[in-house]
Amino acid sequence: MREFLLGLRLLLGSGRGNRVRFALMTLGGSLGVCCLALVLTIPAILDAHDGRAAARSPRLHIGKPEPRHTWVQEFRDPHGSRPFGRVFVATGGADTPEPPPGLDRLPRPGEVYVSPALHEQLRREPGLRGLLPGTEKGLIGAAGLTDPDELYAYIGTSPAQLGSDARTLKDFGKEYPPSRVVDPSTLEALRFTLATLVLLPLAVFLSVCARLSAASRNRRLAALRLLGLSVKGTQRVNAAETVMAALLGAVLGLGEFWLLNQIVARTGLPGLKWYAADGAVSAGTVAVCLLGCPALAWFVGRASARAAARAPLATRRTAAPRAPRVLWGLLFVAGLGITAGFAATGLTTHPARSDGLNALFMPAGVLMTGLGLVLALPLLSYLLARRLARSGNLALNLAMRRNEVEPGSALRVVSGLVLLVFSASLAQGVLVELSQVSRSTSPVQEYGLPMERLSEDQERRLREMPGVDVSAVVMAFDNDLDSDADDRQADALVATCAQLTALTARVEGCVDGEVMRLSDPNTGDEPFGTSKFLLKKDGGRLALRVPVPKDTVRYAGQGVTYVSNAALLVPPGELPPGAVPASATLVLASSSDPSTVRAVLDAIGAVAPTVEVDPAGVNIEALQQLTVIKTLLVAGMVMGLVIGVAAFLVSVTDRAVERRSQITALALIGARPRVLRTVQCLQVVLPLGVGLVLALVAGKLAETAYLVTGGGEVFWDGAGVPVLLACALGVLVAAVVGTLPLTGRRIDPELIRRD
Q1: Cα–Cα nearest to 79, from 630, 607, 561, 454
Q2: Longest Cα pair distance anywhere in the chain, in angstroms?
Q3: How far from 526 is each of 523, 529, 545, 553, 565, CA to CA, in Å?
Q4: Closest CA to 548 of 578, 577, 573, 568
Q5: pLDDT greater than 50 at residue 584
Q6: What angle do CA 503, 498, 563 make, to 5 degrees?
Q7: What is the pLDDT of residue 139?
Q8: How many CB atoms lie within 10 A of CB 40?
Q9: Are strands 491-494 and 135-139 parallel, antiparallel or unpaired?
Q10: Are 412 and 377 in contact (CB under 8 A)?
Q11: How far apart are CA 174 and CA 662, in angstroms?
């Protein structure tokens, strides 16, 4: 306790520079704790979403519904790119279950309870009321909604109005939700990626904050040791300052996170929004922040004071420290060997998979590579400085001699930026893997809408929507038009050859203006006879008979497509002027890029909000999940960027204060300001350049190992290399700009005398 109180007295009474350093340590620690709390709270936000979805899920009786029981029927439709949930409830006379969370009672026939987001959507799109038969009686509470933006409704009705899929309602509440916001297997990969993106740089950043002004503090601690303080007492004095800064930073960081949660919960992130209570800091998160961060600062503080406590005379005389240990370099080599081994299996006929022991070895190799890369930077800086210090260039010689004497400064200054590039490469791999899993293999995405539900104006607007590349019509044959029951008929695609080409991968033998038979060699053809189609014109009906054509157009399909449903190609001119099919599907096609698909679905929802849309091969829930995952990854990359830049700025500021006496001494003996700026720049840029090259190589190997073990088709992400090179170049430019203020403009000889 005595050493702890002595450390606090030294903290408060050792001058303005020490107080500035303490403020930097506290602010840096608070930023790190805020990011840590955010990462730890993301799983709680997802669990709260899934928990409310499970709590409102209907539990059903086995067997057919009886009239005296309560019936229920669920619908999950897309409204644009957002899921739209409707629950129809017909209350019975016996065993009426308790209402679901968010409602005080079950809706009676003709009553509708909607979510606040759906209430606002009904104001913008009154046509949606056709899907909600009844009168709006109130809003669903937060306990019954997964998030504030969910479109959800409970509709009271009678058993006679429900469909054949209605079931007897037992009660509400299941152990598991019907669908999770993020699939469990994907969530594990997401947690690992966030740990690499945020937690690894965060640990380095907190260590950097705990070792600010290490040289000045070591000289002060060496003086205390020479005055008779014990070795352990000297370490405790230093640890008192770092622990106090970490504790205050943790408290301030939790406050920053609370404020950030209140703001972001109201604004939301793309595809992800939550209630502020979901993001409340749990007791476990508070314990980790308030106990873990000071504990880390305690060990870092004791370790940083070990040299001053054991060799005080060498510290006061600024003796050259020992060379960095080779052990950390071996850790980096071992991690690099593991990731390179997994990446090399991608060249064989049996690539490795993330199962069994590989599920442990691959993440361990990535973490060892990232941690070893950071811890090996002092050794790399030392070896580079010894080799380049023999050059005849004055600025390079001065810069490398300083890095040779103080190789640990490279760890504090450039580690955050190096980790940023390494993590960015790994995040690219995760995005590529998710894109392979969720994206359709076809370059074309189709959307089917029933034409009988569309007006002429809606059809015209849908065909002219931005993002829609081509449109066509698939007519369904009509068995009621004097048809022989044994005579098989075929659906028809009403399109031109250009439209058919845009909907398929390859077309051969198509002739415009002629009725032709459609043939896909991959699926085979089935015989059919004359097909009859019912058309509507001027309020009347007429029949269109299409005999089996002699000519055939061959095409290669794009996977899940509406074209495969048709065996006839009918030119639009074959239909009488003004006639439209009585039973047909309007087919729209766009690019299969997820952002384009989402934009087109939203546009369709705005033009025809009550018309059911069938996006061929696209699961709206999966599309929503992909948006959430990308949002979380982008949030992790932003946090990693903030941590890396913050570590660099804090280290550069501390470096400017620490080296004032050295800059002053060089200036007094005649060094020009340009030479001094070059020296300071080289001291940072050269170790950073070596670190960035290794980060690019190690990051690409880690990314390839992840892609190989992920089981996808893409192993080598060459498209991401230019982005990483641009990031590395931007980091170098930022480092050069950050070193310019180190020299200062005013020479103060008092700094030398004081030292």
Answers
A1: 607
A2: 112
A3: 10, 10, 19, 15, 12
A4: 568
A5: yes
A6: 30
A7: 94
A8: 19
A9: unpaired
A10: no
A11: 68
What would the two tokens of residue 409 be? 């400064």
Strand intervals (E) in 140-228: 151-156, 167-172
Integer Cα distance of 499 and 472 in angstroms:
7
Lowest mean pLDDT, pick from 335-344, 506-515, 648-657, 728-737: 648-657
Instruction: State pTM to two decimals.
Output: 0.70
* Block residue for tokens 């993002």: 467
Which of 63-77, 331-345, 398-412 ranks highest by mean pLDDT?
Answer: 331-345
Sign of the alpha-carbon torsion through 90, 92, 97, 99: positive
* CB-neighbour burial class of residue 485 (10 A; exposed 0-12, middle 13-18, buried 19+): exposed
- Quick one: 576 exposed, middle or buried, by C-beta within 10 A (0-12, 13-18, 19+)? exposed
Q: Are 260 and 38 in contact (CB under 8 A)?
A: yes
Residue whose entry in the numeric block shows the structure tokens 């204060």 = 657
Q: To the nearest whole number, what is the mean pLDDT of the chain? A: 79
pLDDT above 90 (res 177): no
Other C-beta atoms lying within 10 Å of the C-beta of residue 613: 20
Distances from the Cα of 709 to the Cαs of 362, 632, 744, in angstroms?
A: 8, 22, 51
* Site of tokens 């240990």: 325
Compute the distance between CA of residue 714 and CA of residue 654 in angstroms, rounded to an integer: 44
Q: β-strands 552-556, 516-519: how paired?
A: parallel
DSSP string covering 169-186: EEEE--SS-SS-SS-HHH
Determine the 3-state secondary structure of 72 from DSSP.
strand
The order of strands in the sheet holding 580-581 is 540-546, 531-537, 580-581
Alpha-carbon span 680 to 654, nearest angstrom = 13
| C-alpha–C-alpha distance, residues 39 and 191, integer Å | 9
| Residue carrying the six token digits 């091969």 | 617
Strands 135-139 and 111-114: parallel
Bridge partners of residue 172, in order along the sequence: 58
Rounded Cα gap, residues 373 and 382, in angstroms: 14
pLDDT higher than 80, residue 669: no
Whether the per-residue pLDDT at 154 is higher than 90: the answer is yes
User: Which token pair is 581?
Assistant: 């099919």
Instruction: Strand 614-615: give its sheet, edge to edge.
Output: 506-508, 552-556, 516-519, 566-570, 491-494, 468-475, 584-591, 444-450, 614-615
- % the chain with pLDDT above 70: 82
pLDDT confidence of residue 57: 92
Quick check: 474 and 565 in contact, CB under 8 A? Answer: yes
Tokens of 548: 């089996």
pLDDT (tens digit, 9 = 90+) per residue, 673-727?
777 778 777 877 888 888 888 888 888 888 888 888 876 666 777 767 787 788 7
Query: Rounded to the nearest 5°, which phi and psi values hold at 133?
Result: -65, 120
| Closest to 86 in 3D by CA, of 21, 143, 151, 134 | 151
Q: Which residues pair with residue 536 across a beta bridge? A: 541, 580
Phi and psi at residue 706, to the nearest 5°: -65, -45
> pLDDT confidence of 755, banded at 50, 70, 90?
very low
Contact 572, 435 (CB under 8 A): no
Confidence (pLDDT) at 115: 95
Residues 381, 431: Cα–Cα separation, whole Å: 33
Q: Which of 96-105, 215-224, 240-249, 489-498 has the lowest mean pLDDT?
A: 215-224
